[in-house]
Design goal:
Layout lengths: L2 H13 L3 E4 L9 H8 L14 H4 L9 E7 L2 E9 L16 E6 L8 H15 L4 E6 L4 H9 L3 E5 L5 E6 L5
Antiparallel strand pairs: 1-2, 2-3, 3-4, 5-7, 6-7
Bound molecules: coenzyme A.
Length: 176
């Protein structure tokens, strides 16, 4: 990202008002809309008991002090991103340890203003700081915006999952 581009992204985010803040154990309910945006396809009715479905529940089960960040405007989250160890593990570090997986979403009206990029950068830095070897995530091929965001942040495609998603990893050592 060029300095000029970065300035544009930051000023677009500034226009939105608000700021990044770490997620806390109090955010268990506030992150649910973002889980839904990231885990279910847009434009479809949510299945009954959506949040109890394993692929969704694993992101909020036993919510506590998570490694995560939100964009907070006057106490309302406009976006959230967090990383945790979820099952099934999609990617491992070279030493065989499971990589935490990332989930991220931004409210529809706040997209395209740099929030996703800023939250992911925060999360990568925080993940390095706590000593994770890297991060992983999955993304649909039908989500080119998210794919582009992850690739610009140094995530590389590693494989297709059993459900046809693209698995990506970002090893911190290789992306100083
Ligand atoms: C994916 C998502 C988190 C991106 O957040 P965002 O705040 O809109 O993204 P940003 O404004 O930070 O954009 C970051 C980069 O991605 C690009 N991008 C973001 N959304 C895009 C889209 N729909 N189409 C094309 N490019 C897109 C931006 O152009 C930017 O690239 P650039 O730096 O080269 O210009 C957001 O679109 C979203 O919440 N989508 C729905 C939930 C979702 O799909 N989550 C991910 C599941 S894997």
């Amino acid at each position: 990202m060029t300095p000029n581009h970065q300035r544009t992204v930051i000023s677009a985010a500034a226009e939105l008002r608000g700021s990044l803040r770490p997620l806390t154990r109090e955010d268990a309910d506030a992150v649910i809309p973002f889980l839904i945006m990231a885990a279910f396809p847009p434009g479809h009715e949510l299945p009954p008991d959506a949040l109890k479905m394993p692929h969704a529940a694993r992101w909020i089960d036993s919510w506590s002090d998570e490694l995560g960040v939100g964009w907070d405007r006057d106490g309302e989250l406009l976006g959230a991103a967090w990383a945790r160890h979820v099952e099934p593990v999609i990617c491992y570090a070279d030493d065989g340890s499971p990589l935490p997986e990332v989930i991220v979403a931004v409210s529809e009206q706040a997209r395209g203003r740099g929030l996703g990029q800023q939250m992911m950068s925060w999360l990568i830095a925080a993940s390095k700081e706590v000593g994770d070897p890297g991060l992983s995530l999955t993304v649909s091929e039908r989500n080119p915006g998210a794919l582009h965001l992850y690739e610009t942040l140094g995530f590389i495609r590693t494989k297709k999952t059993a459900t046809g998603l693209i698995a990506m990893t970002r090893m911190h050592q290789e992306n100083r």
